[in-house]
TrEMBL record:
UniProt keyword Transmembrane helix present: no
Protein name (database record): S41 family peptidase
Secretion signal, residue range per the UniProt entry: 1-19
Classification via Gene3D superfamilies: 2-enoyl-CoA Hydratase, Chain A, domain 1, 3.30.750.44
Source superkingdom: Bacteria
Domain Tail specific protease stretches: 196-391
The entry's keywords: Signal
Amino acid sequence: MRISMLLLMIALLYFTSHAQQWTKEQYTKDFDYFLNTIKEDYCYWDKKQTDWEKVKAIYIPALDTITAKGGFVLLMEKLFYELYDHHASLNTNTAASQRLVPSGTDLWAEYINGKPVITEVRRDFGAYKAGLKAGMELHAFNDVPIEQAIQPFLGKSLKTVTPEAKSYALRVLLAGTHLGNRKVSVKDKGMLYDFYPDQPVNLLEEHRYEGNLAVRSYGDIGYLKINNSLGDNNVIVSFDSALNSLMHTRALIVDLRETPSGGNTTVARAILGRFITKEMFYQKHELTAEQRQYGVKRSWVEIVSPRAALYSKPLIVLVDHWTGSVGEGIAIGFDALQRATVMGTKMAGLNGANYSYTMPNTGIGFSFPVEKIFHVNGRPREDFLPKVLVKLSDNHATNDVILEMALQQLKKP
């Protein structure tokens, strides 16, 4: 703990001496702009315990201590903790910032019956390689008991501290900072164990994909995995080429389990369009700010159109907690189109569609959900569950049980 505090002090000193500086008045104006923008446009107030009116009073005294951009960034990150929303974040960070969830973490955890439990481990990243498993109960993080360690990430304005808010804080904690390595202590079958997921290499900082897609075959079953590239329109050409090479297969698996950073709907519609024969609705949007301001509800349903050569054979779409945002939109789209069986764990559950804003003085960008997104059946996207829901346990530590289940299902006559 002392080492972590020392590293944080070093980082703050660095930003104090090297970063561009603004006046207190400029920081205050950006602070107010941030608060007002979220108050007016954030679309999930109806399910939050946040008292946004108290946030300013809680944090404005800290503005007196800000002397450089790095310190201001760390302060604004604390304001986002009040929303306990993994889809809301700054578009910049410092070395002392927590990594983003889900893109910057390899552990998914929740409070279950009051206990902090690992529910999924990201395959091929540090936590997985270190031996952490679903089902383990978290005991401490960097030698600090979990209940104490999550406190900095729990909102201070909450009317009630819900299990959702605590689970959010737990996941932010487990992601760690860009600056330091993690020690994760767990209870498993009555014993305490320590794990070091960032040794010998911090894969959350150093991981590189071999390409934007992975393509292979399992006999006559095709497999196409998207490697966190749903925001790159160039992946459309890559996807078409890969799918064209698999047209001869008798069934296909599309793997969305490594799409935590989201993307854009151009790529989403391009992918969905290869599997349908006519225009269809694939997701519903709702803009709540207009209703709050004028009392008039605004909502619409988005259409996907067929394109290029049709792949008409059986299809399974794989998802897990690292299927985020647009990846989640593709999954609910396939389900709405009744074109694929969605299989896996619950997804990241990221709220809605983000809009981006820029603070007028410091130029710091930030994003948060402004549109609610729904399945065409009216169910919120963040609540969607796969048709084949897979429950993971420590028995699945090395096997890719989700992929194995998909292959078994497709191999049936």
